[in-house]
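Why should sequence recovery work at all? Because a backbone constrains its sequence more than one might expect. Tight turns favour small or flexible residues, buried strands favour hydrophobic ones, and helices have their own preferences. The token representation captures these environments compactly. In the example below, the structure is given first.
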């Protein structure tokens, strides 16, 4: 399991010009079961993605295809962790295998 922290390195006006493509990118990976949750940080200095993929290298490949990455809109910090405690019912969602 991975937490991806995006930190904007461009003004929000520039971020906004790439937001629709970024959301399409997110939608594809939610549909494939790779992303579990995402959203903007508060205050809006970047975003957060909770990802469940097989390896860090797989995640790096996915993130390299993010329009924010290609446009140099954000920097990415990746935190890998092994969840061991869950709220009732959360383990089924968080640990379900992603489709390829």
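From this structural description, the recovered sequence reads:
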């Amino acid at each position: 399991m991975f937490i991806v922290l995006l930190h904007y390195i461009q003004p929000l006006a520039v971020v906004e010009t790439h937001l629709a493509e970024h959301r399409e990118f997110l939608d594809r990976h939610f549909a494939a079961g790779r992303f579990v949750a995402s959203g903007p940080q508060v205050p809006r200095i970047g975003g957060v993605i909770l990802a469940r993929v097989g390896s860090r290298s797989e995640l790096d490949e996915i993130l390299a295809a993010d329009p924010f990455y290609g446009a140099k809109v954000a920097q990415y910090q990746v935190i890998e962790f092994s969840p061991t405690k869950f709220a009732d019912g959360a383990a089924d969602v968080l640990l379900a295998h992603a489709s390829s």
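A few observations help interpret the result. The first strand starts at residue 2 and ends at 8.
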